[in-house]
Structures are given as C-alpha cells and as structure tokens.
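Memo to structure team: turn this sequence into structure tokens by end of day. - J.P.
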Amino acid sequence: MNVRILFLMCLFLALGGCASGARSAFDAQDREGARPMGLVSAPGHPIRVYLDARDRAALFQQAFREGVPVGPDGRLDFIALSGGGSNGAFTAGLMKGWSETGERPDFEVVTGVSTGALAAPFVFLGPAYDDELADAYTGGAAAGLLQPQGLAALVGSGIYRAEPLRALVERYVDEALLAAVAA
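Reply from structure team:
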C-alpha cells in the first residue's frame, strides 16, 4: 500500500476522534424544568437538588444535627453499584442471592454509575424487585444493546446507537417504578 495513502487514512481516523456530532440542546433552564414522569415536588422538598461544595458541607452538617435518617431496622444501609455494561448481571445475581439468604439489608441509599445506575432503583426497592432486575440483564432485553453506528461513529457522540438503551430503560423504568421509589 502506498505510504501516502496509509498516512492519509491514519490522519482521517485520528481527526475523526476530534469530531463529535450534534448533541441535544439542554441548558440550565431545561434542567430546572425537567421532571421525572408526572412527579411533582412538595413545597420545600424539591425533586432534584444540585449542590456545589459549600452546599454539600451544609447538607451533611444539617443531616447530622437533625439525625441521619435510618431504616426500620435502626441502621443506615447504603450501597454503591459499579458499572461495567453486561457485568450488571453480576449485580442482579448478587442481589437475588443476597435476598435468598435473608441477610440483605433494606438500603436507605443506593447509587450507581453506568449499569449500576440502571440497577439502582430495583436494588433500592428491595427483594420484591429482584426478578425484574434479573430479567433486565438475563431475559434477553439487553442482548441487542451494543449496536455499532458504523461510520457515523466517526462524527457522532458515541460508537453505539442510543436507541436500544433507551428502549431498555423505557421497558423497565416506568411511572409505577418511579412511584414506588418515591413512596
């Protein structure tokens, strides 16, 4: 292969990494107005809270002055779920197995990143949602998530199509689930 052609191909591919496609417009005003499906905040209890470093310190100080909320068992149980794509199936299996032992805590705080964020509502809601959590990862719904965009990935915002993930979330995260979390 001609060295010049090879050089131009490498340059083209390298420059593709610098490009990104158009993203959905979403500014600070949109963020303030966004509300999860039909949820309404009560006075003094916003649905979302955005904190800077000062606010976080004040929030934690207030929580400890007023007493940290604990669960019915008198403990504050929290868990952070890691990411890792298909490794979320391990989270589902762990939670289901932990429930079966009878030793799984009733988590007051659940957080996660990437696939851990998808699992978090089910983990928060407890053993009654273990089957739905397991189904999300092992029932075949997640099988088609990684659909490459092809050459569009060179100018798009990711290598994979967003629609399969959106469909998975819409299948499992509905108004009933959000209402259960809110309750």
